[in-house]
Amino acid sequence: MLIASQMEPTYARRVYPCFDEPAMKATFNIRIVHDPSYVALSNMPAIEVSEVKDENGSLWTVTTFNTSLKMSTYLTAFVICDFDYVTRTERGNEIRIWARKEAVENGYVDYALNITGPIFSFLEDVLNVSYPLPKTDLVALPDFGAGGMENWGLMIFQEASLMNLPSDEFTSRKAMVALVVSHELGHQACEWFGNLVTMNWWNDLWLNEGLASYFEYLGATFVEPKLSLDKLFYAQVVQPVLREDSEIVRSLSQSEDKIKGSFSLMSLFDNITYSKGASITWMLSGFLTEKLFIRALTSYLKEFSFSNANQDDLWTHIQMVVDTQNEVQLPASVKQIMDSWTCQNGFPVLTLNLTTGTIRQEQFFNKKNRQSTDSYNNTWIIPISWMRNGSSQPLTWLDKSSKMFPEMQVSESDYDWILLNVNLSGYYRVNYDQLNLKRLALLLENDPKAIPAVSRFQLIDDVFALTDFGYIPIETALELTKYLAKEDELFIWNVVLLNLIPDNLESTLKNYEVYPLLKKYLLKRMLPIYHYYAGFIHQNVDALEDDYFAQVYLEKLFATACWLGLQDCLDLSSELYAKWMDHPEYKIPFLIRRTVCCYGVAVGSDKEWNFAWKMYNHTDSIEEDEEILLYAMSCAQEPWLLYRYLQYGLSDTLFSSNCTSSIISQVVTKDIGHRIAWEFVTENWPLLSQGYGQELLHDVLKVMGRFVKTDVQIQELQVFYNATLEEDEREAITLLLESAKLENIERRKLLNRVTSWLEKNVDD
Q1: What's the predicted TM-score (pTM) here?
Q2: Is 618 flagged in the annotation as binding?
Q3: Which ranges carry the Aminopeptidase N-like N-terminal domain (predicted)?
């Protein structure tokens, strides 16, 4: 039994009567009556523990807590548990980490304990503030909706975010713990976001979370110096949110009246708030310099502690700091600059013309499906960090829709090139003219390291995004992939592969003539990096324990090599899988376990498949491995094995019910599996519909949509779902399939262009 609370944003009112708004701060006296075999925790330390009898004569424990500091209702919290804890004191602040007894005994929370104190001190030192509470509890719950919650003095996490097996030396696991812990501590150590200074109203939530997300990366790289901060931040924060933000959902800061009902509140806890907030903070810190940024934050914290503020208050404080010095010159007031990024939807794309040295900006939007009548006349005030021929240039600004920069006009020489938004210091994309792109492509082939790694990543991500949205032809993007044999950074390879072979296309691409060309073109370029990592897999995989990107991205590289039919990759998979079959206690290296299991089964026969099935049914397999095996069994290349797998899925005794639908979903995405799964669903629908109803059918039809190219194919699917779905559902699915068909036809055209480009370039 366990009780824990989560009050943010509007649940405190369900626990006790209150004015449940962030600006209404109060002090709280909390007392909890509970079973004597449990311990009660709250924001403040317990000051008294006594006993009381109820009318039946049973004994209860009463725990009384010290009066809290002045704070918002959403930060009050309590936990009643029978957990154990580990503790240490850092600068007079007692830090305790609570978890299930066996987890504490086995040392699963030791790592979290080792980093919490140092991150706390780091944040206190950076911000020049001291933590006002006498103790901090971090509690690991077996089940918790968010990654973590920053209740003041009593932070709550899901177990996965706080636990690390002592035997697990791999950085990726530690990195995740370090990131979540330092995010929540960023709130604690009385960052402006959050506890000491709270937003006036939820529309400024991004200040809270965006800043915590920014400090999360600073804190994590402070305790794990082997993590490369800028690569990590770009690949995991900026790049994914740029993809999402280009759909132009909403602006970062909303007006207060927009967010009055608590319904719209929950939708604010999204990537725009966290990741765009962090990206814009990163940009702000970049053009102010970190020194000024931190100085402004410090003065802001001092003025607003224990009260409320909104984003304009912060801009005012930054402005005051900017006005007292003359190293950093801004083209406009801090408020004007920042409002252009927080109050407008989306973000800009800059287009550079090398001949004239002109840069113009426009909102980045999808030109393929917008009517030309839509007008986007937003302008941003944009900081531009740039380099010319490898040397960094002074920061410059674009504060109107276009502007000429004489210093950016280049000579006739092929070796005179320009790079904008170096190391992604700004939250925008860049579109170069053909001349500069040719020069950059040439540079990459001769000397890729002349361009910093983050900028190479960005260059490739930008050209593919520009292609998707109709700004430049696909051929232009492909030119920039020629150099890849010299690319040794996994995080860059990852973005290339996600763009060239998106996960949802793996099954369909094999049907086209583009496949053999892609195979030849890519494998030639992948071999150096593939062999480099395969060497570690063969000899000493532990040597990769500090290579964070290998732990996150190596799987995609290996999976692609096997998918492209690289013999060495297929052999390595069967070899490691066979080793596991001979010695079930052997652990396939987790970096590529998923790929090895999949291709071990694919290359093998029913013997390999049956072994996976046997291991899946082992009671002591851990959840992560079960998921891998469920996936691997759908990789079989023989139709009868897939059919049998689906049959197994139907019988209640073999599976917990939620696996059946995931088996079907796995099989339907495979090139030979999709017809088999579709037939299976239609034959067994009466049985399946009882257990899963519309949702399963929806998922299956979505995947079937990837294969639809003609009306006849749609009609074939329609015959089935017209008989099984309600009318409004039928219409929705028909629309979905119609648009899938158009997408597939468009993609077919695109693939034809890729094919003819590859035919010309495959032997380069």
Answers
A1: 0.85
A2: no
A3: 2-75
